[in-house]
Records
---
Amino acid sequence: MTTTNSLTAEDLGSAAQRDRRRRILDATIALASKGGFDAVQMRAVAEQADVALGTLYRYFPSKIHLLVSALARQFEDTQSMVSRKPVPGDTPSERVIYVLRRATRGMQGDANLTDALTRAFMFADASVATEIHVVGMQMTAMLTRAIKGEAYVEGEQPSDEDVAIARVISDVWLSALVSWVTGRATAEETAEHIETAVRLVLR
Amino acid sequence: MTTTNSLTAEDLGSAAQRDRRRRILDATIALASKGGFDAVQMRAVAEQADVALGTLYRYFPSKIHLLVSALARQFEDTQSMVSRKPVPGDTPSERVIYVLRRATRGMQGDANLTDALTRAFMFADASVATEIHVVGMQMTAMLTRAIKGEAYVEGEQPSDEDVAIARVISDVWLSALVSWVTGRATAEETAEHIETAVRLVLR
DNA sequence: TTCGGAACTGCAACGTGTTTCTATTATGAC
DNA sequence: GTCATAATAGAAACACGTTGCAGTTCCGAA
């Protein structure tokens, strides 16, 4: 099964190619931020990134691949800015809630972008497994780090239990974001639901 | 905001109209069952339901509305068959796992249908809020009933706590189904993840 | 520097969800 | 039964994701 994946930064030999990739993702984020999922139109992305449509499809084999890759980059950028300081809070539950509140506020600060990224993530099918997996790992890492707090050491594998808990919380977080993005819940309800879930799951 | 909703059975005056609606949903389920989300093509649904394309759109304003309505009907049918007998199991956790196992097996018995219905559910935007809400209510009802067990009485409002728990479990259940449908998790992993979550949330 | 292949451009075309429009048919008030 | 109105059929057209292709440009090996 040679599923066609998105080209990652490492796949790309020349600086010009890495720059093309960057421009494409920048254009994607910009368009998503302006009008959500529907505004991310492949022709528009190509034009704004100053790249031919065919080239766009060579880098990202579908709109969903494109958006999930954009999500991965966003996530990575955010995490690299935050992950130096330890997560504040005395209990796992406090720390997880702190992290999620931060992340949720970030997402809610740009509803259109969140719309585009979460909808793509939820709609992704098997062909996007690789890209999805990247995001899943990032999310798990963020949450297990918060669960462990001071006890966290770089590179160490979290326990199965912690991973299971992290997965449950990610599931709830994603669903909650979807509910918010689609107007089925307010920002407050969303935050509350997430925190309730965290308290239920963490002791 | 007068969002256009799907026509429900009660909206429809004549028997001929209710029959058209039924034929449309039958065709939707049949096509979904054969080829999943992509196979539910509006022209194909219209043809198989013996209805003009414009009529199909009068009954269901989009493919997503159509599929989520189909999901609601499926859910309702299943529940009405099951909800007479009490849920077996001595603890809330056992009962919820029983119910979810049943439901999950049902979904996994028809992967294509599940693909179509869950993907539609997750992709739905604000305009589908009404239809989504129906399904959410059904799911909550199923779960709170399982949580309460013998103590359940028809028509009584479940406690806030039980509703919160039910929502967390639905979130996880849906995410797990999506992972399974998109080939990111096997049936066993899916079942295991769901049961882990239930045990975490229910004491 | 030259050459061959890979990458890129520009553009046309296709499939499917959605919209629109006109002609026809069913329905309900009188 | 007649008429006004709503519902439906049928078909064309549009929008956007995706594919295919001919020509051009870039890049590394010789």
---
Amino acid sequence: MNNKQIVKVLEDIADFLELKGENVFKIRAYQKAARSIEQSSVELEQLVNEDRLKEVSGVGEAIAKKITELVTTGKLEYFEKLKAEFPPGISTLLEIPGIGPKTAMLLSNELGINSIEELEKAILEGKVAQLPRMGEKTAENILRHLQAVRHKDQRIPLGDAVNVVDGIFTRLRVIPGVKNLTPAGSLRRFKETVGDIDLIGTADNAETVIDSFVSLPMVREVLARGLTKASVIVTRGLQVDLRIVEHEAFGSLLQHFTGSKQHNIDLRERARRQGLSLSEYGITDIDTGKMETFLSEVAFYKRLGLQYIPPEIREGTDEIEKAAHGTIPRLVEISDIKGELHVHSDWSDGRDTIESMVTEAKDHGYEYICISDHSVGRGIARGLNHERLEQQIQEINRIKQRIDGIQILTGMEVDIRADGSLDMPDEILERLDIVTASIHSGMEQTQEKITARIIKALENPNIDILAHPTGRLMPKREAMDIDMEAVFQTALRTGTVLEINAMPDRLDLKDTYIYRARQLGVALVINTDSHTTEHLSLIRFGVGTARRGWCEAKDILNTRPLHEIMKYIKSKGRQR
DNA sequence: GCCGTTTTCGGCCCGACTGTTTTCAGTCG
């Protein structure tokens, strides 16, 4: 049983306990444990074997026992019994926004409703509105949400969300009196997908900003609208929340709305022990009732005796404890990146010429760039065969004469075939500066096969980098089924570099894998895999993801000057 | 159910909005 499945069971337990009306703190304990496991970079099965489950924050005696039962037997008796107490399907009602445990139980008990379809029918027949504490308006709202859930494409990739925000911001910025307009929430934390978009700002008069916001042309529907806060639905069923406070409270507002939820709960619990109460408006002394406001997040954290915590690692793991001890590292920044080792040109499936890619990289302030077009196996991408690669090497040599101020490397993204062999002979690869390998086909193989295939490629001394290691494409293609721990161990042994692919629909390696790889000391590189000149600026998504994995500059190969990279790559110390 | 530079027992984040209410419950983030 993997982490994802365990998380699901814990979440379901929390749902059923809610329906049952159990102690809210017990429910919260299950939810906290689930969130915590979701963030974990280690498979719990491993921890069970080593009897280290209770090292996971939020996992105590009782939950550890339940996880152990799940892992060893594949089932949990407590859960099965709990589930049996309710009509099947009732928990699906909780997926509809606006329906909580009380409403779900009411619908089930009074009207026998246990599915979304039954609910819709009952609303249309006017039965729901007649229930106690319901009414026409509530029934109508539930119906609306129910239909929205059906059409909404769940969480959207980070890159898409950023585009939506850009569209909204261009229009909101022109509203008079609005300041500090900033995306917060999971977007600011660079989470790979976002469920909704949180925007915040400050204003002299919040109400006028809210008014303008709800009447923006892209707004399809207004869900809620108060004096300082509004929620709307824009294209693709995406929910956007805007919250406005007064200028002097911006620091605490930004902190509050950035989350994560678990980070804020942990932070507030800690503050409470210090006799302080936190809110989006500021920090209140519980005894005196006096509130301080904060212009910046740095000041806010400082008041709590904490080092500043970057948004990307505010996930409620152990960041607050580290901040209290002053041991939050300086995470890698975009300005640390000195070059790019994986870009394509119009020689294969890229749009732009080698020369324009190089010029663009130079404009980014990069010291080096490696041209790595596809190999012949990727016929659809116009992959290069021997002769064309030979011609490309000569072309790159000519460009080197014309452009100075940036070092140009010759590379290739070689296809790892279904049997783990490469579709370019070693004697050719030996001549290239940097060779990247990746899988583009046969991604449905068994875990055993794929893992063996990747390990074989990593063991080839000519392969320097493994690109987009898990092959996922959000939202449509899942990661390949790989034993990542085995891949990390092999990369460590062979010295092969693993890529953090910055393309917003890839972000591959993902954050938790990065965390684990870094912990083990695996070499990492952040590449954009650019196919156009514009793509080079997507590096920020790769850096954000690396930061979520707690990477410092020293963990990332392309923060180093080229001669150091080449020294590493060609080093004899690597045992292959 | 978890957890501890005030506690191994007694606490457990905080506020906004909506709708159906005569003062608040339910839900959300």
